[in-house]
What does this fold into?
Amino acid sequence: MSLIDRAGAVLRVVMLCLLVTSVYWAGLHGPFVFDDFSALVQNTRIHVSDLSWSSLRRAIFSFEPGGSGRQLAMASFAVNYALGGLDPWGWKLAGLLVHLANTWLVYLLCIRLLLLAGIRQWARSAAWIIALLWAIHPLQVSTVLYVVQRMETMSLTFVLLALLAYLRGRQLQGQGLNGWVWIGACVPLFGLSLACKESAALLPAYTLALESTLLGFRAGDARIQRFWRWAYAGGVVVAMLLFVAVVLPHYASADAYATRDFSAWQRVLTQLRLLPFYLLQMLLPLPRWMPFYYDDLTASTSLFSPLTTAGGAILLSVLLFGAIWLRRRMPLLSLGALWFFAAHLLTSNVVPLELAFEHRNYFALFGVLVALADLARRIPVRDGPGIKMVAIGAIVLVFGFLGVVRSATWGEPLLLATELASLNPGSPRAAHDLGVLYYEMADGHPGSPFVDFARREFERESSLPNASVLAEQSLILMDAAQGRPANPALWARLHDRLRTRAITPQTTGALFGMLGNREKGVELDDDALDQAFMLMFEKVQFPPYSYALVADHALRHSKNEALARQLLDKAVDRSVETPEYLQVLIHGLRKGGHEALALAVIERAKMRGMEP
It folds into this structure.
């Protein structure tokens, strides 16, 4: 490559990054949202004051109570806190930098794919446009500016690097050269990607799609060619056996979906409607199609309830089998379609995740754009490519404009909250966010009109069909903060929801949030709070420390030693897999002066075959 060509390549990358930055810049001033609070803001284990190894080690193993998973992403969040505390701007800037790196990698990958498909004229320009559309698409805003989803974007960084390394190694093998060093580099990259998020497990599906289309399992050495064919065939068979024998039985059980109000079968059926909807969001990215919250979504109960489930199944079948049939005639289009389906193999399967989230399309969008680009180049035109260039330019401008508008909305807390509530009036989460924002705007003044706005929004949230106990929790805490007596009607509503609704993560967070406020001195109805926890514990099992926390509340606030004893028995029973926790529990009871309860815990542990 000549010096001029290199300068041109650098200029294209710089322009790409500047354009993408200009789309997202206004959004950097926005707030933390939804899971940002539980995973980051309230996760004190990543709130490190320095970047020493001991501090980082604590943060690395802070994703969940068990301390496993997503270590690299959690470390990056700890660095953010050490550098700038809880100011969202720095966290969102880091997310944008990761997205810019991914944009560059998408550009490089796209060049390789186009050249591999035999497209040499305008290959770099076409790759640049595809990468730009992928980066500025309005659907990406809720991934890039949603801080916790850096887990998703960082994971893709290493997946993209692995795909580039894999392509390089396989192309060398296709020329009869040694490409194993490049292919071997995929292993550590795969590990780094998994250390960000489990969606990295889809990398073999992406490489299989490459082999089935552009690469064709070809190699200069017949033995290597046979190796890849047998390796992928064996991998597919093993994956299917594991799915049928291990994954499906595990997630098909009722216990796996105890925190959901739908079953594994209903979840899979619902994806038949959602995948076509994701395609609609990609092709027509209007604000009304991107509400961010999908908690009002009703699960499909059969192929014909609702009828769109069957329609989605037909459409997806046509697209999938069409992509497989065209893998030799139109390999680039086939690859893009297969990547879309592969990107949803985990999140549209039996794993008990929420039904829908926009960030699940972060890589899937690239597959769709690659497929559309292959279609666009095949459209015949009489008067040369000019009309195509004008149309593509118009699409870039429209998508860029919509991306800027959505990013700017995400940059203003009140605008974002009101926008989400108006886009999706049936979403309890959107209503709750708006209510919380109104209450914060009251700034602690009981006479502020924003207090009434917040109360009205929480009451509206409570009236929605899919509402959790968050509305009642907020209203109870508002009354307590303003010195009002406990409202028995609110507690009765909260208890009724616990009896009749599934115990979701929002439910758990709401109750333990109330417990945390009580420990800070907020006056609550302690007996009613105990009853709420017991209703929740009847439906879902928790780690031992959860029962111990409520037992502590029963001892110190409710003065109900019998209830505390009952909860401590549950804590012991749940410590079978973590018997070391018993020492912590016994020490805490003795320190609090509850020797009789400590002895009762020891006796219970011995009955369960544990030696505390």
Notes: The chain has a mean pLDDT of 93. The chain has 28 helices and no strands.
